Amino acid sequence: MEDAIALQQELEPRVDTRPSLPALRLIGGIHVAYAGDDLIAAVVVLGFPALDVVAGATAAGRTTFPYVPGLLAWRELPTVLAACERLRSQPDVILCDAHGIAHPRRFGLASHLGYCLDVPSIGCARRRLVGEHEPVAAARGSRVGLTHAGAPVGAVVRTRAGVKPVFVSPGFAVSVSDAVDVVLATTLRYRMPEPIRRAQLLANEKKRRTSAASSVTVS
């Protein structure tokens, strides 16, 4: 566990939150579904701005690393990378159902994935891991800054009026403002951005099929 923390601290300076994103044509979404210690990672690529599904892939794995807040990458990243390797179309930016620099060591799963793939990445999480913020107005598109230890690490964004906000943070090679813009541009009728939602649907469907197949016995 100490080695994992040390690697995050070593890699954190390589995260650059200043670059502007290029013109976006393809946006990826990542989600991981669990069944005990087994997991299914799904990645879906959507065309932008139509948000039509262009490609998708899954990979199955088994975690051997315990659940430790802030060290999620060591449980999920190998399987996520395996799913990304199976993609036919490579995204211009990836949205992760996880945190980026809104992390105790500024290097969450979204940052680690973006670094490994050398692709801009964004963390969009349902729950806060670190940081403080002011209340968020109820209207869609409202946002407030998220800070940790006195430094800006992201934003708290209302993607749907009257629904709990999400926690958006740069992962790799993207600014806070661009990260928020991408999240809002890809969120339709639901709380989470469409690339992540589609990846969640794919992961859960694959998990269901895998569970159904494993329950079949031959007499």
Strand content: 25-35%
CATH topology: archaeoglobus fulgidus dsm 4304 fold
Q: How many strands appear in the DSSP assignment? A: 8
Q: What's the level 1 CATH class?
A: Alpha Beta
What does the radius of gyration come to? Answer: 17 Å
Main sheet makeup: 8 strands, mixed
Fraction of residues in helices? 25-40%
Indicate the multimeric state: single chain
Instruction: State the end-to-end CA separation.
Output: 45 Å
Q: Give the uncertain stretches in residue-range form.
A: none
Order of helices and strands: HEEEHEHEEEEHH
Per CATH, the superfamily is archaeoglobus fulgidus dsm 4304 superfamily
Summarize model confidence as the mean pLDDT.
Answer: 94
- Shape, please? globular
Written description of the protein model:
It is a single chain. By secondary structure, the protein is of the alpha+beta class. It has a single domain, classed as archaeoglobus fulgidus dsm 4304 superfamily (archaeoglobus fulgidus dsm 4304 fold), CATH 3.30.2170. 29% of the residues lie in helices and 27% in strands. The chain is built from five helices and eight strands. The protein has an eight-stranded mixed sheet with strand order 3-2-1-4-5-8-7-6, sandwiched between helices. A hairpin with an 8-residue loop joins β7 and β8 (166-172). The longest helix has 22 residues, at 194-215. The protein is globular, with a radius of gyration of 17 Å.
